[in-house]
Amino acid sequence: MDRQGCPSLLTKLGLGVLTCNSALAVYHSHNDPGSVAFGAASYGAMVLLFHLLRRLDNTSSDREARRKILAAVWALTTLLTAMFASRVAPLMPQFVAVQIWLMAATTAVGGFLAFFANL
Q: What are the record keywords, sorted (predicted)?
């Protein structure tokens, strides 16, 4: 983000690519309502994550507001991790599916510790 508070060109490009990719995914899975819902929910969560990270950059002095934003960021990233693991794990052999869920859980716990544990 630049100093005037406007998103940078790279941020706009990233959101544009995310929007096009999500639109194509929803278009190609229009016959499967579950896949459409997954695509729409993951797109909404990613856009909200972009917004929250931008607010986090702009909130420098208010410690309580930063902790609330960090909690929302952690919740969204954990949600996205669980959503993607739930789509990938059933496609894999059982041993690999267990590994995917273990990695998702480790990521969620690690994110929580990184954000909230004062080590």
A: Membrane, Transmembrane, Transmembrane helix
Tell me which residue has tokens 């579950």.
Answer: 34
10 Å CB burial of residue 49 (0-12, 13-18, 19+) is middle
pLDDT in tens, 61-96: 788 888 899 999 999 999 999 999 999 999 999 999
8: left (phi over 0), alpha (psi -120 to 50) or beta: beta
What pLDDT does residue 4 have?
57
pLDDT at 61: 78
Q: Of 70, 65, 75, nearest to 53 (Cα)?
A: 70
Three-state SS at 17: helix
